[in-house]
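Quick one:
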Amino acid sequence: MTISKKMENKKITFTLDGMLDTITVPQLQEILIPAFDEANHVELDFSKVTYISSAGLRVLLTGHKTSVSKEASMTLSGVSQGIMEIIKMTGFDKILKIV
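Output:
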């Protein structure tokens, strides 16, 4: 997975490219959680994500919980229909903010 970062004011956008699975989750987690120390909003651009596993969903939940504890926000954008079906099937659409 390739992750690019763009910071604008107090907003960080991470553009993810590839699969979010057991192998790539640590890469995202190591940059996502600390991002809430420098930003009050984190956007995860999912337009190039081709697959998400349960480990990927878990890191999104961790990111959401961290954003709440830091009084920040996290959104997902560009979510494909296939990824959205997984998010809805697991009920994460009721937890995560998806734009």
